[in-house]
Write a structure and sequence with these properties.
alpha+beta, 2 domains, 18-stranded mixed sheet, 4 helices, binds the ligand N[C@@H](CCC[C@H](N)C(=O)O)C(=O)O, cytoplasm, isomerase
Length: 280
C-alpha cells in the first residue's frame, strides 16, 4: 500500500490514492495502520476514489475502524493531495462524501502547491432525530444531559456527521478524557457522537477541544469547528463568522445567512510518504 501521511491542524490521516488499493476490509486495516505503536499512526485512514457525481470521492475510516460520514480536516488534505500531485489542475473542485453529499472546494495556491483550502460544508442539520439524537424536536439547543451525576447542556448539530456542542468555563484545560467517552456513547445518541467543549471569548472567537467519535481526543476537528460556530450563532454567543481555535491551530468558519451553508477555511499539510506491506 502506497500512502501519504497528511494532517489538518494536527488531525492526522493516512491518505491512500485509488480504488486498486481499497481492501475488502478497510475497517480492520484502519485499526492496524492507525495504531500509533504498531502501525503508521493516525486519527483516520482516508481513501481517494473515483466518483460519478464529483471530481473525486473520499472515504474516511476512524482509527477504531468505524466509517464516518464526513471529515472537515480530511477533505482539505484530499484537496491538497489531488492538486499537488497533478490529479487536477483546477483550483475549484468537487469532492463526494458519504454523508454530506458533494462539496465544493476552493484552493489557494502558492508556488504550485495548495496552501489553504476553503470548503463549502453545506447546510447544517438541526432536527433532533436527524442529527441523530433521541430528542424529537426541530432544534436541540442547550438541552440537559446527565452523565455520572453531572449535568451538561448541549446543542446538537450534524454536518453530515453528528456533533454535540457543550459550553464550559475553560475548554483548553477541560478534562476531555473523563467526560468525552461517556458523552460519545450516551444513550441519547443512537449513532454515538463527536463532542466539542467550547469557551466563547468574543463574538468572533472561541476555543474548542474535541473528543471525536471513533478516534478520541484529536488536535482539531473541522466538522466540529463548523458545528461549534452553528451552535454559537443559535445561542447568540458569536456572530456568523468566527475563528475557532483548536489545540492544533485556527479554523475560520462562516455560516452564511443567504444560502444557509457553512464555509470552512484552513490549512492542510503533507508530512511524509511511504509504502507498507499489507496482507488484506
Ligand atoms: N476529524 C474530523 C471528523 C472525523 C470523523 C469523526 N470522528 C466522526 O466519526 O464523525 C473532522 O475534521 O471533521
Amino acid at each position: 500500500m502506497n500512502f501519504t501521511k497528511m494532517h489538518g491542524l494536527g488531525n492526522d490521516f493516512i491518505i491512500v490514492d485509488g480504488e486498486r488499493q481499497l481492501p475488502d476490509n478497510a475497517s480492520e486495516l484502519a485499526l492496524d495502520v492507525c495504531d500509533r505503536f504498531f502501525g503508521i499512526g493516525a486519527d483516520g485512514l482516508v481513501y481517494i476514489l473515483p466518483s460519478e457525481k464529483a471530481d473525486f470521492r473520499m472515504r474516511i475510516i476512524n482509527s477504531d475502524g468505524s466509517e464516518a460520514e464526513q471529515c472537515g480536516n480530511a477533505i482539505r488534505c484530499v484537496a491538497k493531495y489531488v492538486y499537488d500531485n497533478g490529479l487536477t489542475n483546477r483550483e475549484e473542485i468537487t469532492i463526494e462524501t458519504l454523508g454530506a453529499g458533494v462539496q465544493k472546494v476552493q484552493l489557494a495556491v502558492e508556488g504550485g502547491k495548495a496552501v489553504s483550502v476553503r470548503v463549502d460544508m453545506g447546510e447544517p442539520i438541526l432536527e433532533g432525530l436527524k442529527v441523530p439524537t433521541t430528542i424529537d424536536a426541530e432544534r436541540v439547543i442547550e438541552h440537559p444531559i446527565e452523565v455520572d451525576g453531572r449535568t451538561f447542556s448541549f446543542t446538537a448539530v450534524s454536518m453530515g456527521n453528528p456533533h454535540c456542542v457543550i459550553y464550559v468555563d475553560d475548554a483548553a484545560n477541560f478534562d476531555l478524557d473523563t467526560w468525552g467517552p461517556k458523552l460519545e456513547k450516551h444513550p441519547m445518541f443512537p449513532r454515538k457522537i463527536n463532542v466539542e467543549f467550547v469557551t466563547v471569548n468574543s463574538r468572533s472567537q472561541a476555543d474548542m477541544r474535541v473528543w471525536e467519535r471513533g478516534a478520541g481526543p484529536t488536535l482539531a476537528c473541522g466538522t466540529g469547528a463548523c458545528a461549534t460556530l452553528v451552535a454559537s450563532v443559535l445561542t447568540d454567543a458569536t456572530d456568523r463568522t468566527a475563528t475557532i481555535s483548536l489545540k492544533g491551530g485556527d479554523l475560520f468558519i462562516e455560516w452564511n445567512e443567504a444560502d444557509n451553508h457553512v464555509y470552512m477555511t484552513g490549512p492542510a499539510a503533507e508530512v511524509f510518504r511511504g509504502s507498507l506491506e499489507v496482507s488484506r
